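QA checklist item 7 of 12: single-chain prediction sanity check.
[x] sequence parsed
[x] length recorded as 178
[x] structure emitted
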Amino acid sequence: MRKSEYEAHQKRLKEMKTTLDTRPPREMPMSQRREIERRQKQSLVELDNRLLLDRLAVAMSVKNIDNERKHVTFISLMEGKKKRELQRIESDNRRLLQAIRKTVPVYNHLQWEKDAENRVHYLRNMTEFPDLFVPPGSQQRARSSSPTPIGFSPSKAGIKSEAPATHNTIPTSSSYGN
């Protein structure tokens, strides 16, 4: 008996229909209602645009007060204030320029040059190798043109191969014309 029940059960399982729809979906799952509404709205907009364009064409073909382009001069309410402000700035600039031209220079560049020459002279006297001394602000000599002693190293001698320090060329307080 058990065997016959099992076979009947197997037969019912084979004949059973599924409750899930596993078929591929339809071409249009919904009606074409949305597409039809979109087309209707688009046609209404096109119709309104065409009517508006026709009305504009008629209005522009007839000469009216509204469709004539007249040059209107714009009157600024701030124009006078702007002019006065510019005149005030110009007069201040002129006054400052005259004051700058009338001032006597405080720095004496001739004294600065003399002090710089003295510093170069002192530096040359202080160097360990005066023949290889390169004054600040001048270009270094090429190594091939100057004889270098055998075993000489500029870094060991205290000579820098980079540009000279600018603190040697700063004017002293005595050169400010005091």
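[x] summary fact logged: Confidence is low (pLDDT under 50) at residues 162-169.
[ ] second reviewer sign-off
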